[in-house]
Specification:
This protein is mainly alpha-helical. It has 5 helices and no strands. Helix 2 packs antiparallel against helix 3 and helix 3 crosses helix 5. 9% of the residues are buried. The N terminus is likely disordered.
Length: 150
């Protein structure tokens, strides 16, 4: 356990997954903003507050891109958003699977799973934490691996 006032170096798979999900959410927002910007630059969307676009005026100082270029940019961002959403879904499924496996275990297997998978400790660190020799710890972990738990 970390002492008050000191930075904990303790790792936790659930915190890492949540951080990755949070970063993916930000990336999705950025790509959505990029899509809106591409629409404005290619003339797809009217300025906010207008019901239509006045094509009789010359464009102002804003940067314009072609319809085809805008479409290409939007397609790329949409593909990236879809890929990120899939990755986010996979992370959520992994988190649920890890929790389910952990809750189904008991005794030494539960501790081994917690230390190795959730806290991401090395075999040596986990064996020391449990008070086992490294070889005994490896035997427990190998049995779990044979069962498909790790």
């Amino acid at each position: 356990m970390a002492k008050p006032g000191k930075i904990s170096k303790e790792r936790d798979i659930f915190n890492e997954i949540e951080l990755k999900i949070m970063l993916i959410n930000e990336q999705i927002k950025n790509h959505q903003r990029s899509i809106e910007k591409a629409k404005k630059m290619s003339g797809w969307a009217p300025p906010s507050g207008l019901n239509g676009v006045d094509y009789s005026r010359e464009p102002g100082n804003s940067v314009r891109i072609s319809f085809a270029e805008g479409l290409r940019m939007i397609e790329q961002d949409t593909a990236r958003i879809n890929r990120l959403k899939m990755e986010r879904s996979e992370l959520r499924q992994s988190k649920k699977r890890i929790k389910k496996i952990h809750e189904s275990l008991d005794g030494n297997e539960e501790q081994v799973y917690y230390l190795r998978v959730i806290r991401k400790m090395t075999q040596e660190e986990a064996a020391d934490e449990m008070g086992f020799s490294k070889r005994h710890f490896q035997r427990i972990e190998a049995g779990m691996r044979d069962q498909g738990l790790i």
